[in-house]
Amino acid sequence: MRITRNLGGGHAWTLHEGVLDDGRRVFVKRSAAASAVLESEAAGLRWLAEPGAVAVPEVIAADGGALVLEWIDAAPATAVAAERFGRSLAALHAAGAADFGAPWPGYIAELAMGNEPAPDWPSFYVSRRVLPFVRLARDRGALSAADVELVEEACDRVTEIAGPAEPPSRIHGDLWSGNLLWSADGVVLVDPAAHGGHRETDLAMLALFGAPHLNTILAAYREAAPLADGWRERVPLHQLHPLAVHVCLFGEAYRGSLLTAAGDVLAL
């Protein structure tokens, strides 16, 4: 493989465009220090690809501190692609998972994330997704003890307000708009934190920073797989985790958003 272009970097890795010996273009993510993160990403991509419901890049290699993926050419986001993606996402979620969790170590950005199974979604979400990152943010000085107490109070309500129990869905786990790659063939999902989780989590992530054609995606999803009553009101609940992660990664800039979400959860 030959590297043809450097694409910058982020977190603990560098990004590159390359060419294989057979002439195929590839996307390369390199990090000797975070090889476990890259292996986790590869496992998640392969798992998301299994049902054939959504498009993900082919994993060509994931070893030696490098993740090599099929190259995807970007194209403008369209309403047609958004509608097709909404239906595809519903099919992915319906493919299900064996447990709430995953059989490989989890990461989001460079942060370790527990994937050990839990008996139900509320206990998984609180113990594996929200509280570890809230406490890490406190330890890094980005949240006060009072801030943590507020989020803990919100977590105490998860079982009560989570809506009807559902089996584990096969979710991307970090489905913000930057992880939707729009191509000529439709949406391709990249950079997952994949696991068995709650399908509303992916939808709440799409809303967090505003995905293109979001209303079209949601309408197509709901037509294919109706959501339980109150799903819109539960969006702040499912955003507690990504907002806590952002406080860990970027500091107090996201503190207000996290505390607002916690307050909204307590108001449900």
Give the overall shape, derived from the CA principal axes.
globular
Contiguous helical run count = 9
What is the oligomeric state here?
Answer: single chain
Low-confidence sequence ranges: none
SSE layout:
Layout: E1 2-10, E2 13-19, E3 25-30, H1 35-49, E4 59-63, E5 66-70, H2 79-95, E6 106-108, E7 111-113, H3 121-139, H4 145-155, H5 158-161, E8 169-171, E9 180-183, E10 186-189, E11 195-197, H6 199-208, H7 214-224, H8 235-250, H9 255-267
Antiparallel strand pairs: 1-2, 2-3, 3-5, 4-5, 6-7, 8-11, 9-10
Helix pairs in contact: 2-7, 3-4, 3-8, 4-9, 6-8, 8-9
Describe the structure.
The longest helix is centred in the middle third of the chain and has 19 residues, at 121-139. The chain contains nine helices and eleven strands. By secondary structure, it is of the alpha+beta class. 43% of the residues lie in helices and 19% in strands. It is globular, with a radius of gyration of 18 Å. The model has no long low-confidence stretch (mean pLDDT 96). The strands form four sheets. The chain has a five-stranded antiparallel sheet with strand order 1-2-3-5-4, with helices on one face. A two-stranded antiparallel ribbon has the order 6-7.
